[in-house]
Design brief:
Elements (H helix, E strand, L loop, with lengths): L6 H4 E9 L8 E10 L5 E3 L8 E9 L1 E6 L2 E6 L2 E6 L5 E4 L8 E9 L3 H12 L2 E3 L5 H8 L7 E4 L1 H13 L2
Parallel strand pairs: 1-11
Antiparallel strand pairs: 1-2, 2-9, 3-8, 4-7, 4-9, 5-6, 5-8, 7-10
């Protein structure tokens, strides 16, 4: 089922990043978003339409979502997170048909030639889905990015890599 909702209706805030003179060997952030989904029409397939050098971390703040990888289905209540490359055939995430309230989550996207091997190694070691307490430093850090909503944050190569590594270090 394709995603067709207008972004402005589901994104509560969005902060974009641009890295000046990016180095392919370093990760760089491209977006942080607080999103609210309220219906089963929200269903995203993580297939070949996405760049293989991009990844995302998604953390449920309220409600419940679902992450599916192959035949394995993971519930994503508040305090659960998943971390995946954007191009992951057989994976999807969606608002479950049994849910009764909004699914509110913050997500952070980053990119670079180094990203796919980095994410794959972390997934092999720790899995795709994990607990991430809502009062953790990384969740607070991601939520704080909302203070820059509606802006394009222009960063140096090392500033961009630092933001990504601070998020990863908090996992």
């Amino acid at each position: 089922m394709p995603f067709s909702l207008p972004l402005q209706k589901c994104r509560l805030w969005e902060t974009n990043f641009q890295v000046f003179k990016a180095m392919p060997s370093l990760p760089q952030p491209y977006v942080a978003v607080l999103e609210k989904q309220t219906g089963p029409e929200y269903h995203i397939e993580c297939g070949s339409q996405y760049d293989e050098n991009m990844a995302m971390l998604r953390v449920t703040l309220k409600g419940e979502g679902v992450f599916r990888l192959g035949e394995k289905i993971y519930a994503l209540p508040a305090g659960k997170a998943y971390f995946i490359p954007d191009r992951l055939p057989g994976a999807s995430y969606y608002y479950p048909s049994h849910a009764s309230g909004p699914w509110i989550f913050v997500w952070f996207g980053f990119k670079g030639e180094c990203v796919r091997p980095l994410v794959e190694e972390l997934n092999r070691r720790y899995g795709y889905v994990f607990d991430l307490p809502l009062d953790s430093a990384v969740v607070r850090y991601l939520e704080s990015m909302g203070s820059m909503q509606g802006t394009m944050q222009v960063l140096s190569t090392t500033e961009g890599a630092k933001i990504v590594m601070e998020v990863l270090a908090g996992l």
